[in-house]
Queue: 2 jobs
Job 1
Amino acid sequence: MEKIQMTTPLVEMDGDEMTRVLWQQIKDELLLPFIDLKTEYYDLGLPYREETKDQVTIDSAEATKKYGVAVKCATITPNAQRVEEYKLSQMWKSPNGTIRAILDGTVFRAPIMVQGISPVVKNWKKPITIARHAYGDVYKSTEYRVPGPGKAELVFTDESGKEQFRQTIYDFECGGVLQGQYNKDSSIISFARSCFQYAIDTKQDLWFATKDTISKKYDHTFKDIFQEIFDTEYKARFDELGIEYFYTLIDDAVARVVRSEGGFIWACKNYDGDVMSDMVSTAFGSLAMMTSVLVSPDGKYEYEAAHGTVTRHYYKYLKGEETSTNPVATLFAWTGALRKRGELDGIQALVNFADKLEQATIHTIESGVMTKDLVGLWEGETPAKGVNSLDFLKAIRTRLEETL
Ligand code: NAP
Ligand code: MG
């Protein structure tokens, strides 16, 4: 069989620990035998980030801007223990944070569904994708304990030093708490564009919800910006595709999501997204079956797994013990990126290959062959057979070859 040819390289961001091991196994078993894989390789593994003073992370994000599509392996975000373990000269920042800041992107998380592992919410038939605005609000707030009686005010002074607004927040008669938070129009606009863009890409409805009835300026601004951008830039395309943009109050959204059958994107403000993404991913089953894609407002894509480097399994692997780490989300990061590359470059064979590889993976699990993390969730008729990561990938390969 002839290998599929690529024209533009994918930006490949390698990572750490167990996922780095899976990364190579996926390439060897499922990609390199079938594709003349063209990538521009960036090693985001912690030792090389240290060696390059984290420049490699910045370079990989710049390359993503240039080529438009990246695939990323999970990476360690250093903490004090990692500084010790890897003898780091600095506690380097989270690569995901750095890349997100450079691409000004929004993260979309979606579960991979298989028959035999059902969501806790029985009426969920299709994936629910959560888009979290990962900027500002309570995550960039200023707050303190109020020690005792006194007046708290909200003051805005413009660039020239002129006081524009002064409002009493509360006349404290006793101690309490106080918090100031903000967001920026530019960031909300980028968030909105990324959401509309991704809804078009995936041909799914977009839901957005805030508490604008209570927060008449702050949350209402989010609502207004979304509506204006939708009307002026995206409405026509949505109509053509037969998809919808739907705004509602956050409490109403929560109730509708639970009653829905899924199959849409739910855009959330930062805090709502933080909380709801954990709720939704847990209800769908497993973090190991959750994909994640960073989409910039101008349509650049970085695909990855939602989970981390699975450190506990890696330490077992280093001791020579057999590991059964689930490679599905990392594999779907690859298929997502290859499909997008194929679409952008008009290479239908690449798109078809990505589809077939995903199908082969899902069918392998549905036939009862899976990694051990899924065995406990399995409700299928055939008994589940828990296998190690490499045997699982080989089983997928066998199925894939039957379809090529
Ligand atoms: P984690 O790597 O997601 O793993 C937490 C636990 O979840 C694992 O110990 C395992 O449970 C289970 N798990 C996650 N992915 C799995 C998979 N593919 N197959 C089977 N089980 C899976 O989170 P962590 O241990 O908190 O973090 C480890 C490192 O990852 C940290 O250094 C963190 O900085 C980094 N991290 C990176 C990213 C990223 O790059 N996007 C995201 C999150 C965390 P059992 O042990 O019970 O089997
Ligand atoms: Mg959270």
Job 2
Amino acid sequence: MAELRFSALKEVFSRTPLEVSLPEDHISQYFGINVFDRTKMERYVAHEAFKAVKKAVEEGTPISRPIADQVAAGMRAWAMERGATHFTHWFHPLTDATAEKHDSFIERGSNGVVIERFSGNVLVQQEPDASSFPSGGIRNTFEARGYTAWDVSSPAFIVGTTLCIPTVFVSYTGEALDYKTPLLRSLAQLDKVAVEVCRLFDKDVNKVNATLGVEQEYFLIDEALYYARPDIVLADRTLMGHASSKDQQLSDHYFGSIPDRVMSFMIDVEFEAYKLGIPLKTRHNEVAPNQFECAPIFEETNLAVDHNQLLMDLMRRVARKHKFRILFHEKPFADVNGSGKHNNWSMSTDTGVNLLSPGKNPKGNMQFLAFLVNVVKAVNDNQELLRASVINENNSYRLGGHEAPPAIISVFLGSYLENMLEEVATKVKDKKMTPQEKTEIKLGLGRIPEILLDNTDRNRTSPFAFTGNRFEFRAVGSSANCSSPMIVLNSAVARQLNLFLNDVSALVAGGRKKDEAILQVLKKYIIDSERIRFNGDGYSAEWHKEALKRGLSAETSVPKSLRAYVSENAKKTLVETGTLTERELDSRLEVELEKFTKKLQIESRVLGDLAINHIVPTGVRYMTTLIDNVKGLRDIFDENDYMRLAGARKELIVSISDHISMIKKLVADMIEERKKANIIEDPMKKALVYESKVKPYLEDIRYHIDKLELTVDNEMWPLPKYRELLFTR
Ligand code: ADP
Ligand code: MG
């Protein structure tokens, strides 16, 4: 069995970096050539239709059938010029992957010959069979049919020979079966209310976009080693493997020079990404060996999410070409850092102002303060919901570990802003303020320097950190669809901004001046959300204690965390704002629970199989050679020498035998627990039982396997070891 491991290693040693041939052109010359963006639409579509689409994007107006026909014709003409033969509606079901079903452009023309056609009907709507996508019960009660509908705000693009049209995916009854539908709803709500808040300060604002920049972490391992590790192939992570003697202790990989083979892969990814209009900007080695990161320039959130989903897909394909496998799993290896997907988020206006960037004058700073404080308050009131939006089976191995943000949600602002909030909280008076008091506060606000950007401390342990001109939600998992956290964050902030408007109006109605009313409301929010603000070490045991004292939740159980989706608070944030219906919300919980249980079930099965079929036989074989060795000693030595020499070997035999027995027993017990869990109908109960009864075996069994890995002859060990997976490339 060990042959597979050694031949895989030999294969890796023979690899050379793939030559990537790039065009002579500068990036800006081929950037977006495979995207049907506005410029191309203007060229390929009649002016009237172009204007209608522009209006639809900006104002959400519907598009008529004749207009859709014109756009479709232009799209097809462009796509065929670029070699496309097929098209697909491209959507994000609740699976963390994207879905596509390709149809060619061909149809029978009137006289029976084959022609290419692409009508507005087909562009606007399709009816894929929805029955095999998770729906959390929405589908079962009605029809299997689902509808995909064109998302005009995200441009169509070509991958290979297929024109891809970003779409939402809804059930026969119009309920969301995807991430995009609620994401678009949450963005529309945030836009609407944020514009109103902006108008307290600046009447010229007509649109607010949430912006998102996604830092994507990932591991690369060689294809040959990947195939020699059935756990990675089937469960996306290693379920066993003793820590390598050296891994990330010396921090010598982080920001180090990028290995040639990996560089070649990255260049190839970037080339493909640029053609698709994905503005990749940054690439570097990450903390763990064989771990890397890339980040684009931020974009409007819906587009940024589409681009991230597309990018992951593209990276998977390019990795194969380079004989790598890419691991987006949040914790593919125990003992070294896991991978996240930091969501850098802010809001920006159509007047070009970043609402989380300090302004150039007191008024601008007041607006900045208002948005900052409202976001902090929204996080405070929705801490559990935010965690629910990012926690899942994969990410549970990361959240609460040493490197990742803790499972406790808190906000880091840095000492400068922290002091400023304190100042507002102490200086603003609840009674009518004197002109002098007001001036003093405004002067204070005027001092928020533009250099704040360089002044913000870095705190790597915070799950939700202010980084100068944006917040960075770091608890998001590397394999996740960012829509999930963005839906909650946008809705939470939208709900909060509505409260803010109401609170300010109430004070103004009571006779307060607008500025004073704003300050007084902000003061109240600053005090009310004090507990969520934390500048210290988020990994420390003291914080854990302190957080509990503050009434923050430190829940690490996945199903229990997911319960936040059906809390009263979730109804206020997600249902009352119109992001999800109650049924959609329930269905999301069900889908998440099911995913959790199924992933654990798969991991448990894979581990059981490998333990019994790979590890136990290997242990037995090595034990047999030891036994033969002991027998040989008895043959050639006299009793005294034999007793002296055989002692240690016998101990080793006993120890191996004990580990083997334990593995067999634990696997048998685990299977029994699985059987009991599998007959539970209720998804919450089932998930809880899987977590409390089945999941612990993964660790327990692994412990004995990893001990065996340390003792068994290296020549016999069947699976590539951590030192090989992490250091060979
Ligand atoms: P770091 O590792 O220091 O956090 P990176 O350069 O890796 O920084 O990533 C920062 C990300 O934040 C980039 O994607 C960047 O475009 C994004 N970003 C910057 N400003 C904003 C903003 N106003 N809104 C959203 N994202 C932003
Ligand atoms: Mg960052």
